[in-house]
Task: structure prediction
Amino acid sequence: MRLRYLIPGIVFALLGAGLVYALMTIQSGKKNPATVPSALIGKPVPEFVLPAPAGFPQGLSTADIKGRVAIVNVFASWCPPCHVEHPLLLDLAKDKSVLLVGLNWKDKDEKLAAWFKEAGNPFSHIGADRDGRVAIEWGVYGAPETYIIDRAGKIVYRLAGPLTEQLLRDEIRPLLARLKQ
Amino acid sequence: MIRRVLLLLALLSVALAGGTAHAAVEPDEILADPMLEARARGITRQLRCLVCQNQSIDDSNAPLAKDLRRLVRERLKAGDSDEAALGYIVARYGDFVLLRPPVKSTTWLLWYGPAALLIAGAVFLLLRVRRRERAAAPAPLDEAEAKRVAALIAGEPRSPRREGAP
Result:
């Protein structure tokens, strides 16, 4: 009989514990409910050809990415978090066995050139997506975003938001090591 | 009086028009063909703006929403059906882009959960009430009680009745 009255209490305590757990994982940054899951994980890289922004030698197309382990970074000079993650991209660029390319999203060529002249260019290829049409093919909804492609040309990873030391150490570098094998 | 009614009608029409005035569609986006434009509006009202997330792209002023509105109109002009145009966006942005989630095995809980909960609650309540009714039913009389009742019915007044009493 006593137990009967305990049941609602237990149910409520479980519910409360679940909510506290969810709040804590959001707080710690492990999970963000506002992040849109990519529909393109496991799908082949979209077909596109983009010219290089003025002052850069290599444009970007699907053919450049296929057959190599590649990182595609969606960025723009007007995007503050892109400036924050820029040193990490320069660091990633030191590994020549991985192709690191940029998709320059809705940017002005001269602004990009001025920024990279000062800060350095981590990318071997840059595609100028001036009207954002190619970014839609990738399912991009903000900058920065980072995609990792395997040798078969499939998208295996997508990060919406800036790279961090922690993400590089815990997720991206181990993934790249596995893909390179 | 007539003036008051007219004023009311005018206010009402403004309020109703306000319902559609939220749309962020700009004049340069609108298609010349009104049928096609109506279909485009119908599609873009179902698509979530991924920048603001609780607005449709029809409502949102975000640049990405504008690009997607354009894209939907391009697809329709190219001869896509409504489903194909919607599918084109979903293929790139996933089910999350749909404001009305599709019914599939992963969303059954979402779609049928509330109804299931309601039915379970009704069944629980019905069983509880039935059981309580049975418990509250009077126990059969024992021998002594039965005798007393029989005597009462047979008309043996325990105390004298006064004339005229109710």
